[in-house]
Automatic annotation (TrEMBL):
<dbReference type="InterPro" id="IPR006108">
    <property type="entry name" value="3HC_DH_C"/>
</dbReference>
<dbReference type="InterPro" id="IPR006176">
    <property type="entry name" value="3-OHacyl-CoA_DH_NAD-bd"/>
</dbReference>
<dbReference type="Pfam" id="PF02737">
    <property type="entry name" value="3HCDH_N"/>
</dbReference>
<dbReference type="InterPro" id="IPR006180">
    <property type="entry name" value="3-OHacyl-CoA_DH_CS"/>
</dbReference>
<feature type="domain" description="3-hydroxyacyl-CoA dehydrogenase NAD binding">
    <location>
        <begin position="3"/>
        <end position="182"/>
    </location>
</feature>
<dbReference type="InterPro" id="IPR036291">
    <property type="entry name" value="NAD(P)-bd_dom_sf"/>
</dbReference>
<comment type="similarity">
    <text>Belongs to the 3-hydroxyacyl-CoA dehydrogenase family.</text>
</comment>
<protein>
    <submittedName>
        <fullName>3-hydroxybutyryl-CoA dehydrogenase</fullName>
        <ecNumber>1.1.1.157</ecNumber>
    </submittedName>
</protein>
<dbReference type="Pfam" id="PF00725">
    <property type="entry name" value="3HCDH"/>
</dbReference>
<dbReference type="GO" id="GO:0008691">
    <property type="term" value="F:3-hydroxybutyryl-CoA dehydrogenase activity"/>
</dbReference>
<dbReference type="InterPro" id="IPR013328">
    <property type="entry name" value="6PGD_dom2"/>
</dbReference>
<feature type="domain" description="3-hydroxyacyl-CoA dehydrogenase C-terminal">
    <location>
        <begin position="185"/>
        <end position="281"/>
    </location>
</feature>
<keyword id="KW-0560">Oxidoreductase</keyword>
<dbReference type="InterPro" id="IPR008927">
    <property type="entry name" value="6-PGluconate_DH-like_C_sf"/>
</dbReference>
<dbReference type="InterPro" id="IPR022694">
    <property type="entry name" value="3-OHacyl-CoA_DH"/>
</dbReference>
Length: 295
């Protein structure tokens, strides 16, 4: 396998493209938005500089990695020769179903179609394609070049061959694949999102402030980052979308999104990507500049 198409060049898409390109794959990065593609190339370049500075890669790896990435706004051109597509477009069911229907018409019959969805059913996505056995979940973690885990999600129809190919490929990327079955939130978000939602409820109910909640979880539970800061990094819109899937999928009120999260998303305060969430950030940077807003 050599030709990989990544659909969506946002937070996750740029990291997935970076990781495949750094490991010698030809990457076609597709987004409907040209400025998102340019921003992704800029982010990849900055992240490669950071890896060089840390001594994680050689200086020469930067040019080689960037040379492996081509960008497209036209999905027909970007996906035609793909052996594997990794879809990392916006977490929206209708967008993903439309994309997979389109991909199954554009791509070769034996192409594997993977989704990086955090919560949408792989079985449902597969059902709109002509070859559901070739559809699988490949759930990378943020930031992709750094995080070791890939949650490999088997849909109802996913074949053993496709699962084993994705497990081998994940190891080629230096990642640790973990195989799970297709139920709402899979494993990672079924456990993580209720914790983040509970942290938001704790803030909403005035039990403690942002700093206090994150500090309890960092120093008390040895989490590298507090749940509210983590929510900012993931994107509050993404967190809300996943909670809605858990709520609808299990029909259990324990997954109901906190009204404060709903309000923040409605107001466009989406975390790092908009410069404002539970914390505020320097535009275009992940550095915290202002301590907690709600104290
Ligand atoms: N953010 C995280 O920490 C995280 C972690 C794991 C998985 N995910 C999943 O990864 C996926 C992407 O999330 P993100 O945080 O990168 O989102 P994002 O909002 O940062 O980026 C999404 C990108 O998709 C593009 N897009 C939308 N519709 C498209 C289409 N039809 N064709 C091509 N491009 C399209 C948008 O222009 C945007 O650039 C989601 O399914 C999300 O659930 C996110």
């Amino acid at each position: 396998m050599k030709n990989i198409t990544v659909i969506g060049s946002g937070t996750m898409g740029n990291g997935i493209a970076h990781t495949f390109a750094q490991n010698g794959f030809n990457v076609s990065l597709v987004d409907i938005n040209e400025s998102a593609l340019q921003k992704a190339l800029q982010t990849i370049s900055t992240n490669l500089d950071r890896q060089i500075k840390k001594g994680a890669i050689e200086e020469s790896a930067k040019a080689a990695t960037l040379a492996n990435i081509k960008t497209f706004t036209n999905i027909n051109e970007g996906a035609a020769t793909a052996e594997l597509v990794v879809e990392a477009a916006t977490e929206n069911r209708d967008i993903k179903l439309k994309l997979f229907k389109q991909l199954s018409e554009i791509c070769k019959d034996n192409a594997i179609l993977a989704s990086n969805t955090s919560s949408i059913s792989i079985t449902e996505i597969a059902a709109v394609t002509t070859n559901p056995g070739n559809v699988i979940g490949m759930h990378f973690m943020n930031p992709v070049p750094v995080m070791k885990l890939i949650e490999v999600i088997r849909g109802y129809a996913t074949t053993d061959t496709v699962t084993n190919t994705i497990i081998d490929l994940s190891r080629q990327l230096g990642k640790e694949p973990v195989e799970v079955n297709d139920y709402p939130g899979f494993v990672a978000n079924r456990i993580l999102m209720p914790m983040i939602n509970e942290a938001i409820y704790t803030l909403f109910e005035g039990v403690a402030g942002v700093y206090e909640i994150d500090t309890v979880m960092k120093l008390g539970m040895a989490h590298p980052m507090g749940p509210l800061q983590l929510a900012d990094f993931i994107g509050l819109d993404v967190c809300l979308a996943i909670l809605k899937v858990l709520h609808a999928g299990f029909g259990n009120s324990k997954y109901a999104p906190c009204p404060l999260l709903v309000n923040m998303v409605t107001a466009g305060h989406l975390g790092v990507k908009t410069g404002s969430g539970f914390y505020t950030y320097t535009p275009g940077s992940k550095d915290l500049v202002v301590a907690p807003k709600f104290v």
